[in-house]
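User: Need the bound-state model for magnesium ion:
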Amino acid sequence: MRHSKAMNPTSIDHRIVLGDGNVRWVHEEAELKRDEEGYPLKMLGVVLDITNLKEAEEKAEQQRIFLQNTIDGITDPVRVIDREYNVLLMNSAAKAAAFKQADDKQCLKCYQAGHGLERPCDELEDPLYDHPCPMKTVFFTGKPMVITETLADSSGKMRTYELSFSPLRTLGGELQGVIETSRDITDRLGMEQSLLEKESHLEQLTYLDQLTQLPNRLLFMDRLRLGISATHRENHPLAVVYIDIDRFKQINESFGHEIGDQLLLDVAKRLRGTLREDDTLARFSGDEFVVITGYLKQPEHSAVLAQKLLRSFDQPFEVAQHQLYLTASVGISIYPQDGTDADDLLRDANTAMFQAKGEGINSFQFYEDDMTAQAFEHVLMETSLRGALDEGQLRLYYQPQISLENGKIIGAEALLRWEHPDMGLVSPAKFIPLAEETGLILPIGEWVMRTACRQLKAWQDAGIELGCLAINLSAKQFRALNLVETVTGILQETDCPAQGVEFEITESQIMENSQRSIQMLDKLRDLGVGVSIDDFGTGYSSMGQLKSLPITKLKIDRVFVRDVAENADDQAIAEAIVAMAKALGLVVIAEGVETESQKQCLQQMGCQQVQGFLYLRPVPAEEFARYVEEAGLA
Ligand code: C2E
Ligand code: MG
Ligand code: MG
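Assistant: Bound-state model below.
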């Protein structure tokens, strides 16, 4: 017989073996009866067969062990929690991760075990727990939920967990708690992150140029296609600008690839620095860079960009104690006029770049030839004109004026020319209006005056006595308040006699504001300089108006001279001008005389002087001096 319980010395559960060999559990309870002295008299008791009860108890214990073993077999922590936050069940993983272990006396609360807290976490104002209590949410919705939480583990390390909560119901369907499983996803997240990094590195290798980290050809073509469709939608032009560094191969060969690479990095940086945010700069192989313009108002504006890109090479590059001067050639193609697909546009820009190289290094060229000139006239002229003065690109040409009485040279007209490094000789008809518009005519006009006066003085000193030198004055110059001071200053500075100078002012300029004009003309006369009315005959001025003007000469406009020998109307006008001049006591000169018959015709009318290609085209000073020497002066 085995005592299974010794709690009550008067009760005992034990097994008995029956006669047939069956084993039964019995519960015996006995009470000892004693006499007055305390000696045992008898025992009173019952014997109960508790075999069934014992078996049921054992079964329940086995089920509990089975359940515990089952959840212990789950490697992620699992906890069963009731509505009062009591942890009813934990597997060994949950126990191992718990901040606190349960004792026999009291049930652990989920926040004690899970977070080492003494209050439910949603009652704390801690940003770590700034989510609603998932337990409460599950109790409210009755549905499972998942959250992630980054928390310090029991060793203090920050880890990220994915927690899932499922409702636990009684047989009757009533919610009695939640089953919480948590999974440490820190390592998985780390792996995902490193996978992402690897992917982006791979992408970099595929789409970026490894040296400069600029987009490579593949990405460029992609962007160009996108750019084309955006441009198409928004209806503005797009330009592809192809930049090739001149003679880069030589640099690579003479200095080595390392310096070559360093240089390319510097070039990339400078180019990028000249561009706008919405322009794309890519590097193709070697020394080729290509730009896709962002928003462009007009196709010609891409020339401003090309010029800026070229300018970015003006300063030398400093690499490994070397100062290297680079130049580049730039080709531009325009969408949609040069091509509607990306390949065509790129090919055209490349062709244009080779054309630019052919034209001479450090220049740009549009694929469409005319565009280069148009761009110059429409957008580049202004920027270049500002530099024209400073960079000494302006010249004065001289054209002789001849007396029809004796055929001798009695003067010259100074005519402005712009020797542009890319565009060649630019006509004043093209840039004077722009200079007027921008106000640049004032410093330019001053330069003309100074140069002409200096030249006149130099000729005089050299024994070439010109009657007078005509200088054209623009409207803005004529209206400038300080014109008289400027002229006085320049005459003094150049030591040029005022009588030698004659200003040409167009008829329309004088008539525009005649009262002020008269005052200005009076002042000029007081200075001693002559004034002639240029392009006369086009401004409809009357004899009465002219009478009041302090002028010295009338210059018959070229349009009346051109057909003067054949056209009766022109002849009549020319004759009227000559007659008017005579009546007013003014000298009259005809400009644009190209033929002998024109000259004779004018001569017969009594025109005193002529100027034109028949004698000499406008020429530089030295050539003019030679002409004078050969022709002889009056
Ligand atoms: P303009 O003052 O009427 O000058 C005469 C123009 O006729 C010059 O043109 C001259 O080259 C041209 N010419 C002379 N002889 C002949 C000829 O026989 N046949 C033809 N077809 N043309 C002839 P250019 O030099 O191109 O100057 C054009 C205009 O630019 C000038 O007209 C003048 O208004 C302006 N300009 C020139 N230089 C200056 C300057 O220094 N200052 C200002 N404000 N304007 C200037
Ligand atoms: Mg003139
Ligand atoms: Mg004229």
